[in-house]
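Q: My labmate handed me this sequence with no annotations at all. I'd like to see what the chain might look like in three dimensions before we decide whether it's worth expressing. Could you predict it?
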Amino acid sequence: MKMKRLNIIIILLSAFVAGMAQVKVEMSLEPMELLVGEQSAITLSVTMKEGQQAQFPDYKYAAPLIPGVEVLEMKDLDTLHLDDQRVKLTRVYTITSFDDSLYYLKPMEVKVDGKTYQAKGRFGLKVLTVEVDTLHPNQFFPPKGVQDNPFLWSEWSPLFWLSLLTLLLIAAVAYLYVRLRDNKPIISRIRFVRHVPPHQKAMLQINKIKGEHIDTGGDQKEYYTRLTDTLRTYLEERFGIKAMEMTTGEIMERLRLEEDQSKIDELRDLLETADLVKFAKHTALLNERDRNMASVIEFIEATKSDETATVERVETSLTDSEKRSQRSRHIIVTLIAVLSLLAAALLCYVVWHTFSLIAV
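A: Here is what I predict for the chain of 360 residues:
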């Protein structure tokens, strides 16, 4: 019976010691010796199982750690995960002292799951002061007086006036640039004009009407309008008559001097049919539209000239005012280039000499 009780006591003591070993609190101080007003750091760490809650000492700014020693800063917790599901939490406290003395820092405490654990060890902080020899005050030198300005105006005045001149040049360049931007350039343009014979123009328009399928569509008014306009334009360019302004009868009277009566009759049928479609809402048959188109093509082929397409080079000439404006623009561009180079050179000179004077 006594052995059984002894075993139970040993087991309980082992469990208590193992539980105590699971939480470990450590504390260090670095440096342990400093001058008045200097700072030292206390590193407080606790090693425990993951999931346990630790509560570190909390201090406000300039709160006394002990009489004569103040806490200046309390850094955030640093977490380090170890093996066997353990974790190590570390916090650094920055302390200082303004009185020379030897201070004993008692071990700091950490609460883990509501239970208090104390760091092991004893720590001493030695605060030293600067010794002052009051017996020999002559060894201390008074503060220096106000020094004279080492830079003379005679050295800086040329740079000042050159800097002012540089600013004026930059302003002049900006003004000329605005004038140049507002004054649009005048360019002597060269155009190449392609002259197409009247019969080729007319055939292009007819092929376009065919390509857009207007000749087979339902809009007869558009079809006859474009077809007759093509014919009238051809008559104007080929024979020099103002067909666009003439009636059908006037056109026919004028064409009698140029062609045979059979072709004139076919064109009359076309123009009269077109007038009926456009103004009397007449509906032409499909074969009638095809016959009118063929009549126009035959007339153009029969009356076309031997002229071929040519390309003409046309150069526009400038007026006196445009020439003067162009010359003034060239002058402004030249002035901008010269003044810009001069301003850049002066700026480099001023900067270089300024650094030279400062470095002396």
